[in-house]
Write a structure and sequence with these properties.
Distance between the termini: 46 Å
Low-confidence stretches: 145-152
Structural class: alpha+beta
Helix content: 25-40%
CATH class: Alpha Beta
Length: 152
């Protein structure tokens, strides 16, 4: 059944939920926003997360990376979101990772695919314009067993 909300409204809710889940270290809330299998890509890595345990490990590494950088807020701005099918949204958002009023990394563009399931909207794929120098890229590199890169 198609949504009564715009694609942008749906994505903005997802962005708020996932940001809050990360900042509160709430894996259950984060996990509820994603479907498995989950395709994650960066410039260096492509992963398919197939189990909740794999997703949990990625989440824990991401949160750890943000804690190490002193992150106090994640500001995500939806640039565009559109239905590419009645129950599938493709979106582009920019993440601003903040420590107080200072940005800790360059703005991070992400393209995501979000699909409607029986229990609601869930992200099924995300392409991050990230390297191993930022927490999401580092978390994925660890999962893919790529060589370690020190925090920058």
């Amino acid at each position: 059944m198609p949504s009564d909300h715009t694609a942008r409204e749906i994505i903005e809710v997802m962005l708020l939920r996932t940001s809050k889940a990360i900042m509160e270290n709430d894996f259950a809330a984060m996990n509820a926003c994603f479907a498995l299998p989950l395709l994650l890509e960066t410039k260096e890595t492509e992963l398919i997360i197939t189990t909740e345990q794999e997703h949990r490990e990625m989440f824990d590494r991401l949160v750890e990376g943000y804690v190490c950088k002193g992150v106090t807020d994640i500001i995500r701005v939806c640039e565009v979101a559109e239905f590419i099918e009645p129950n599938v949204i493709r979106s582009l958002h920019i993440s601003h990772i903040m420590a107080g009023d200072q940005r800790v990394d360059d703005p991070l563009p992400t393209i995501a695919t979000t699909e409607l399931f029986d229990d609601g909207w869930r992200i099924t794929a995300a392409q991050y314009a990230a390297t191993r120098n930022v927490p999401v890229g580092r978390a994925m590199a660890v999962r893919a067993n790529l060589p370690r890169v020190e925090n920058v």
